[in-house]
Amino acid sequence: MADHITIPSPGNFRRAESALAPLTEPLFRSLWIAAVISYTGTWMQNVGAGWLMTELSDSPLMVGLVQAACSVPVFLVILPAGALADMRDRRRLLLFTQSWMVLAAAALAVLTLFGAVTPWALLFFTFLMGLGAVMNDPAWQAITPEVISPERHASAVALNSAGFNVARAVGPALGGIVVAAAGSGWSFLLNAASFFGVILFLYKWKYTPQAALPTRRVRDAIGEGFRYVRGAPQVRSVLIRTGAFSIGAASLLALLPVVCQPHGAQGYGFLLTCFGLGACSGAALLPRLRLRYSMDGLVAGATVVFAAMTLLAGQVHIFEWLCLVLFTAGAAWIGILACFNVVAQTMCPSWMRARALSMYLLVLQGGMAAGSALWGTVAARRGVPEALAWSALAMVVGLLTITRHRLSAAELEMAPEVVGD
Q1: Cα–Cα distance, 417 to 267 (Å, whole number)
Q2: Greatest C-alpha distance within the chain
Q3: How many CB atoms lie within 10 A of CB 43?
Q4: Would the pTM count as exceeding 0.90?
């Protein structure tokens, strides 16, 4: 599955008692279970790829490029992916992208298990995985209203977020165990197998394609999306704010394999588990915090906390303290992305949803990719602690964008499905 986070709109935080209701619907329940398994496989692969690069190369730049290789395809195909998801049969598109990722993960597994993988081969297949994930993501996020009854849509979005964070907590730990016990190749192989639940669901799903857009050309659909954004200040604000955060925020996870190299593969996996557990805890606190603070206040406070934890990650060498740092960073991370995703999920009508989400993902993942490469370069020249310190400063400076680009999604609701004739 694509590496993304979805959450409910603020107006739905007060209805926590109905959070599990979507699981009573067989269609959504089947997809949710398959998605959690697939997310877990993705996190196992992330652990395997990051650790394998530390074994193949001692360059912090190469380690940082693993994250960049996974994210850089966003620059190439995310906008066409969003247009295709609004124009074509989303079920067939998802079957193609899921199958693509199976083949890429399986091929990397075979090369690794036979000892034939090189640093550049690892980056190439990581790039292919990222390409499939980017093509998958807009369509995946756009089908949620199509697998759940309308009155449970917000709760379904919340459960998708919970499922992702459960996988974030479990997947790295399992990945660390698998890598330590059997090597990175097995984590890649297990990831390839994890996609089959989603593929089986999509194959059996009796899907009714959405009505076609008036335009038949991807280029025209993308242009229509850009025209929409130019006339929507709220959309521009969330894109600018997301970019200001993501470039600096990329450093922590991109350089974490180097930070925890003294603690081994299991230590790396456990630290990512701490990050995921922190994200789950942060998600649980969000309803209460959202009632007490404005969206901009939440983002500002969480950004300062995340920046502080990024700085500390380069200074702390005791494993137990690193666990606390990663746990706190995870809680802050989910608070920041929660607010951004609220606006991203509600800022456009449904007929524009996949294209708007593709632009949001372009900024978010593109910023992460650029940041991973940037801070990897700084780390290679000046050391990891200094790279983490500069990235923390960049996040704090990015908060200056609040003065002109405020987030205001309190009155937004999920727009009804509207499709051109």
Answers
A1: 46
A2: 61
A3: 27
A4: no
How many angstroms separate the Cα of 261 from the Cα of each of 39, 42, 326? 24, 21, 15
d(CA 79, CA 371): 20
* DSSP one-letter code for 414: P
Phi and psi at residue 338, to the nearest 5°: -60, -50
- d(CA 162, CA 169) in angstroms, rounded, equals 11
Instruction: Report the range of poorest mean pLDDT among 25-29, 250-254, 315-319, 415-419.
Output: 415-419
Express each pLDDT in 66-84 by its tens digit. Answer: 877 877 787 888 899 988 8
DSSP character for 211? P
Residues constituting the chain: 421
Q: Which residue has the tokens 């009508």?
A: 349
Closest CA to 252 of 283, 279, 275: 275
Q: Map tokens 């390839």 to a residue.
A: 192
Helices (H), ranges, 19-152: 26-56, 60-71, 73-87, 90-113, 119-142
Which residue shows structure tokens 């992330």?
46
CA distance 79 to 314: 35
* Tally of CB atoms within 10 A around 145: 16
Look at residues 149, 134, 161 and name the one whose alpha carbon lies nearest to residue 9: 161
Sequence-separated (6 or more) residues with CB below 8 Å from residue 374 = 247, 250
Residue 117 tokens, joined? 């993988």
Q: Are 34 and 198 in contact (CB under 8 A)?
A: yes
- The single residue listed with the structure tokens 């990222």 is 130
How far, in Å, CA of 308 to CA of 311, rounded? 5
Q: Are 100 and 235 in contact (CB under 8 A)?
A: no
Rounded CA separation 192/211 (Å)? 33
Per residue in 311-361, pLDDT (tens digit) is 999 888 888 899 999 999 988 987 788 777 766 666 667 677 778 778 888
Q: What residue has token string 């180097």? A: 258
Kindly list the structural domains of the chain, giving each domain's residue range(s) and its CATH number in brackets, ordered by start.
22-205+215-403 (1.20.1250.20)
- Please, are residues 78 and 134 in contact by the beta-carbon 8 Å criterion? yes
- What is the C-alpha end-to-end distance of the chain, expressed in Å? 32
DSSP category for residue 212: P
Q: How many CB atoms lie within 10 A of CB 114?
A: 9
Give me the half-sphere count of Cα atoms (radius 13 Å) on the Cβ side of residue 157: 24
Q: Are 364 and 75 in contact (CB under 8 A)?
A: no
